[in-house]
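User: Assemble these into one structure.

Assistant: Restating your components, then the assembled model:
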Amino acid sequence: MRVGIIGLGIMGAPMARNLLRAGHPLTVHTRTRARAAGLLADGAAWADSPAALAAAVDAVVTMLPDTPAVEAVMAGPDGVLAGARAELLAIDMSTIDPAAARALAERAAAAGVALLDAPVSGGEQGAIAIMVGGAAAAFDRAGPLFAALGKRVTYMGGPGQGQMTKLVNQVVGAGTLAAVAEGVLLAAGAGLDPAAVVEAVGGGAAASWMLAEHAPRMQRRDFAPGFMVRLQQKDLRLALASAERLGVPLPLTAVVQLLFTAVEARGGGELGTQAILTALEALAKRSG
Amino acid sequence: MRVGIIGLGIMGAPMARNLLRAGHPLTVHTRTRARAAGLLADGAAWADSPAALAAAVDAVVTMLPDTPAVEAVMAGPDGVLAGARAELLAIDMSTIDPAAARALAERAAAAGVALLDAPVSGGEQGAIAIMVGGAAAAFDRAGPLFAALGKRVTYMGGPGQGQMTKLVNQVVGAGTLAAVAEGVLLAAGAGLDPAAVVEAVGGGAAASWMLAEHAPRMQRRDFAPGFMVRLQQKDLRLALASAERLGVPLPLTAVVQLLFTAVEARGGGELGTQAILTALEALAKRSG
């Protein structure tokens, strides 16, 4: 399958690499062409616009930072829909507002394009889970691409349901990370050995991916991203907005969002999400 | 090693069974003798008091509901210390206040008894992690018993540090569970397929033991314990008290504790901790 990918950031670049490796003829487009240099050297083709890219391939994958970016790339003047043949398969793997994803899927369908929302979880290190919303037939067509891109691929229902699942994922993940941060801070206050705490707590009912991955980073004060606080905040804002629309109360998520806001207020928006620890520490800090 | 066990509740009874199975001559004592019937039929001996039990064995294991119960059984008039020979090994596997555990270890040492605090995590289903505080030499002597009782055994430092680790564990575990509950509620509000949500979210960065074990229970409204809300509350009160003593802020844990209080206020103290979902649901409920 001829594939195009738009967006070669922290997530998009390795995905493009995986598609090449799986043997798909690949065309790329991204705002900053320099980012594509390595892929072009390895055989990928360049397209000057999303529309030009869409005209040259059977399937388009987008991996972009936010809802406005996806709307512009898909439905803008030179966007994917402007260049698309009927039967084009479009897969948006960005994390965006589920309502916007539903609206885009309708506009795509009107242009004869099957659009799947297929956000991912797992970050750039290790295995990636893909949560897919959209028409079941399009999901089946996308099977070979998903196989090259993720370890666990789950079909979640109609348009927008992949994005809703991603927001559920972010609510659970961010809350789990915050719980880990409180545990790390309490353990440090009590003078417990950091590695022994992770070993002991990781052996029972409190075990999680966040504990195993991020507690050691917090303990050695390694706040490099991983997944940036400001992107996490974007996702939590989407989750809180969707929850409010649905009448679902998320008190913990509201506290977590507040803590990340404190990290951002202290200039930490580009840090990894494990820097939520520093917001808790700031609460404890006394003057004098 | 001749072992005695005091407390044959939801955790103590299977531990007694494991000690018998490992070939240790076993003496038991518990408030309600009827609870010991099965063990006595299988070869365990009965002791009429903690003191009498302590006099008959090399090591005493206690598994009791709270700090006052442990203080009474260890240091009360007919307690373990009243009957103990010097060199007795005492292992308290209850979850109690770390400061109380330190004080008891001092009183025990004065009577020639080595007391370890060794609370557990993992619940009655599946593998158990043991977190141990106390003298390193006593920890070494207890090795064969721990091997029969738990899957992962971690030495955490001096007296009370096992209990501190358990409180860290409860902070992380309860926060993770609450995050899972918010995710389950958001997913239900969005009409997502329950099993697909657990599969998708469980494949990425939001994966946890709590998600795998308790999300399905929440989804089918199975609120049977497992681990009871009122015991979880006891542990979170201890954690918040220790945290305040240490100057460590735990805002999420405070919210989680509040949600569990709401479950208790609605008569759910004996439900499993996954019933925290019902406190979130109550927030969403409208009159009329």
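Chain B touches chain A through 74 residues (CB under 8 Å).
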